[in-house]
Amino acid sequence: MMEKIEKPVAEAVVHWRTADDGGRQSGPPTALVYMATAVFAQGGDREVQPGWPASADQLSILLQKTEELDERRWRCLVGFLAPELARPNLRPGAELLVLEGPRVVASAQVGAVIHQDE
Q1: What is the 3-state secondary structure (H, E, C) of 25-65?
Q2: Tens of pLDDT, residues 84-104
Q3: Are 111 and 13 in contact (CB under 8 A)?
């Protein structure tokens, strides 16, 4: 089990969906670092890509809670297993959809990008 993201690439506010809205049945995760897949929400993808977001190019995302804003919204550090694949879309205001299988369980709004020497 991972205890912290070694090289975070961004900070984001994550909004966890309720079970009634298709989110996790058990509520937000309890792991120190939550690992899942995610897609960047690009303008128009919902309308033109069949099966989106499950059919989109997915990235392995890491989320580490730094602050609980309320029961369903967290401020998190964000990392990726392949950060070079995320960087072209990573900017303040970018939206990510967090998936468990084909289900969207959360959305993340990037607030700041963390630049690191590679």
Answers
A1: CCCCCCCCCEEEEEEECCCCHHHHCCCCCCCCCCEEEEEEE
A2: 999 999 999 999 999 998 889
A3: yes
Pairing type for strands 95-100 and 73-80 reads unpaired
**End-to-end alpha carbon distance in the chain:** 24
**H/E stretch holding 78:** strand 73-80
Rounding to the nearest 10 degrees, give the CA dihedral for residues 58, 64, 68, 70.
Answer: 20
What's the CA gap between 72 and 61, in Å, rounded? 18
DSSP structural state of residue 48: H
pTM of the model: 0.87
Across residues 61-83, what is the average pLDDT?
96
Assigned token pair, 43? 């303008």
- Give, for 117, the enclosing helix (H) or strand (E): none
